[in-house]
Design brief:
The protein has 8 helices and 5 strands, in the order H-H-H-E-E-H-H-H-E-H-E-E-H. By secondary structure, the protein is mostly helical. Strands 1-4-5 form a 3-stranded mixed β-sheet. Strands 2-3 form a two-stranded antiparallel sheet. The longest helix is centred in the N-terminal third of the chain and has 25 residues. The radius of gyration is 18 Å and the shape is elongated. It starts with a helix and ends in an 8-residue tail after the last helix.
Length: about 220
């Protein structure tokens, strides 16, 4: 499969996941966007804002890689733990951050992320069978206008496509970032991860909509 064909295949899923998510939330009212099934749970509006913040963050990482590797055709960036803090929600953030300061812990975790087959990592991210702690920078705001959120999701997706599509003939596996918990990711696996992320939260939205007190209009 050529580089262009590989990217085309990935972008088809990338776009499909976003269309599915938008189709779920587009008909909803502001009241439905703001509804919380529990005091400590996110609303649909918060889910949408979190997805937008996540794409914006990774879009910035990809842009930096492309600029850095403009001449060489490849680039690598190491992300610090603080730049994308993620982990099981059952572990308090302060403890997790403390543990991960030790190289002896970070290395096995990084190796583990590299060893686990990609399809298993994709399944775990796309299906909320394990609750994942959200990075502080990706924590959403409540009560944002639904039209603002919908426009943001569409604008960010268009910007990501505009960033990646002109490079479809290049080997995008040469542009990579590395994180102590998520391991090494190239552009292709980053796009797949974002598609999985949309799918994960599409399931979450359906659960919120099935809540007994979910507004009817």
């Amino acid at each position: 499969m050529s580089n262009a064909e590989k990217l085309t295949t990935l972008l088809a899923r990338f776009e499909s996941a976003r269309r599915t998510f938008l189709a779920q939330i587009n008909p909803l009212s502001q009241e439905q966007f703001d509804f919380k099934p529990a005091s400590d749970a996110w609303s649909i509006g918060e889910v949408a804002h979190h997805i937008a913040l996540t794409e914006q963050t990774f879009q910035g990482t990809l842009k930096e890689l492309f600029e850095k590797g403009a001449q060489s055709g490849g680039a690598t960036r190491n992300l610090g733990i603080h730049e994308l803090p993620m982990g099981p929600s059952i572990i308090p953030q302060s403890i997790l951050q403390g543990i991960l300061q030790f190289p002896g812990v970070r290395v096995p975790l990084s190796l583990g992320a590299s060893i686990v087959p990609g399809f298993i990592q994709s399944f775990i991210l796309a299906n909320p069978i394990l609750k994942i702690r959200t990075a502080p920078e990706l924590q959403p705001d409540a009560g944002l206008p639904r039209q603002k959120l919908l426009a943001s999701l569409q604008r960010l997706r268009a910007a990501t496509l505009a960033l990646v599509e002109p490079l479809r003939d290049k080997d995008l596996s040469r542009y990579r970032w590395h994180h102590p918990l998520l391991g090494a990711r190239d552009v292709y696996s980053t796009l797949e991860m974002l598609a999985d992320h949309d799918q994960r939260h599409s399931i979450q939205v359906e659960r919120i909509k099935r809540a007994r007190a979910f507004p009817s209009v």
